[in-house]
Design brief:
Structural Genomics Hypothetical 15.5 Kd Protein In mrcA-pckA Intergenic Region, Chain A, 5-stranded antiparallel sheet, 5 strands, 39% helix, 8% strand
């Protein structure tokens, strides 16, 4: 899968938002002026059209989860086919991606690092190796880091950083054996970052 190889801080500045692409060891506001576009004037002086606002919100969410446009659009189509609110369905599908679950459980410090753990076959689902980041985790799935890698320093560091983040109460996590599972499906209130998912639905509904 293709990925962005440039500055993660520039992406955050482009979206005027912390996209959680860095480990969090240092406050992002100490690293850059997040309120200012790269090489441009202050965002507060720019008036965006409705379409531009919708587009920026879509780009923001897409970059938070590290997903390409085609895949993100497919998530929208699937969410639209499911019963209930399309916007909530979309967020649930994104939250239930294996790479996101690994990040939420604190086994990685970023979602991109979670993708690395998965592609390097460090992650087990129900005692079987799964190397697909987009795997949709189910309620009965047991997620575990392979015992061979349980003492990796980067995983220990990730757990340390996890203790500084909001804890997901919809997940059961045991950091002693690096294992966890879903207690329930995530609700909208469980997704702590400030996004307006309805703008994305409006964009794709056109």
């Amino acid at each position: 899968m293709a990925k962005f190889l440039g500055s993660k801080l520039k992406l955050c500045r482009r979206e005027n938002f912390d996209l959680y692409l860095k480990s969090g060891i240092k406050d992002i506001n100490l690293k850059c002026n997040i309120k200012k576009l790269p090489g441009q004037i202050n965002l507060n002086k720019i008036r965006l059209s409705d379409y531009a606002l919708q587009l920026r919100e879509k780009q923001k969410v897409r970059r938070i989860y590290g997903i390409l446009e085609k895949q993100f659009r497919n998530y929208y189509k699937k969410a639209n086919r499911l019963k209930g609110s399309t916007s909530i369905n979309l967020l649930q599908l994104l939250e239930l991606r294996l790479d996101n679950i690994i990040y939420r459980m604190g086994f990685s410090s970023t979602r991109s690092e979670a993708k690395q753990l998965i592609s390097h076959k460090l992650v087990l689902i129900n005692n079987k190796i799964v190397n697909i980041s987009s795997y949709q985790v189910l309620l009965n799935d047991c997620i575990k880091i392979n015992n061979k890698f349980i003492n990796q320093e980067r995983i220990k560091f990730s757990i340390k950083m996890f203790n500084k983040r909001d804890k997901p109460n919809w997940l059961y996590i045991d950091h002693n054996i690096l294992q966890g599972y879903l207690l329930r499906l995530p609700k909208r209130s469980d997704i702590y970052f400030n996004i307006n998912e309805q703008l994305i639905i409006e964009l794709y509904s056109k």
